[in-house]
């Protein structure tokens, strides 16, 4: 088992790299808490998750992720500008779709094949402001 690694040196883009080894239950809930705590910083931010080497989340984990996404958005709407998930396989992209379906659209999310591409998009999303007309969907205006 291995916990994810975190990097906030590029804040307001927060980087998470998931391990190739599965997380224990305590590591998984610590990971969710780390993401939840980003909302407490008070700034708008974006998250890139590098999941290329990570094992697929269990159905229970997918439900927990979706729950945390909805709850964080309800408490701190528009603080999370966007999320980019870097994935290598079609199976991972299918899981990404399932989590989005479970959580419902709360903020812009996109899959990517490279971290660099995700970070470029996330920095663009951080520049979008309410009333700019640039937001991709109604309801995602900060």
How would you describe what is shown here?
By secondary structure, this protein is of the alpha/beta class. The protein has a single domain (5-127), classed as Transcription Regulator spoIIAA (2-Layer Sandwich). The protein has 4 helices and 5 strands. A 5-stranded mixed β-sheet has the order 1-2-3-4-5, sandwiched between helices. Strand 2, helix 1 (25-38) and strand 3 (45-50) form a beta-alpha-beta unit. Helix 2 packs across helix 3.
How do you describe this structure in short?
The protein is of the alpha/beta class. The protein has helices at residues 25-38, 59-75, 90-103, 115-127; strands spanning 5-7, 13-17, 45-50, 80-86, 109-112.
CATH H-level superfamily title: STAS domain
Report the CATH architecture.
2-Layer Sandwich
- Describe the global form: globular
Q: Hey, roughly how much beta strand do the residues contain?
A: 15-25%
Number of domains: 1
Would you report the number of β strands? 5
CATH fold field value: Transcription Regulator spoIIAA
> What's the gyration radius in Å?
14 Å
The first-to-last residue Cα distance is 37 Å
The low-confidence runs, each spanning 5 or more residues with pLDDT under 50, are: 131-142
Q: For this structure, what is the CATH class?
A: Alpha Beta
Q: Strand order within the widest sheet?
A: 1-2-3-4-5
Largest sheet, described in full? 5 strands, mixed
Number of helices: 4
User: What is the chain-wise order of helices and strands?
Assistant: EEHEHEHEH
Structural class: alpha/beta
Please give the share of residues in helix: 40-55%
Average pLDDT? 85
């Amino acid at each position: 088992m291995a916990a994810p690694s975190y990097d906030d040196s590029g804040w307001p883009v927060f980087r998470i790299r998931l391990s190739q080894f599965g997380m224990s239950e305590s590591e998984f809930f610590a990971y969710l808490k780390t993401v939840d705590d980003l909302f407490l910083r008070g700034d708008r931010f974006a998250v890139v998750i590098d999941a290329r080497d990570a094992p697929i989340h269990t159905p229970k984990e997918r439900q927990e992720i979706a729950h945390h996404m909805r709850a964080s958005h309800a408490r701190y709407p528009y603080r999370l500008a966007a999320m980019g998930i870097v994935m290598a396989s079609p199976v991972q992209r299918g899981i990404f779709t399932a989590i989005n379906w479970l959580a419902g659209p709360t903020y812009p999310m996109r899959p990517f094949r490279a971290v660099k591409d995700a970070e470029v998009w996330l920095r663009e999303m951080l520049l979008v402001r309410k009333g700019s007309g640039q937001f991709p969907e109604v309801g995602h205006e900060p």
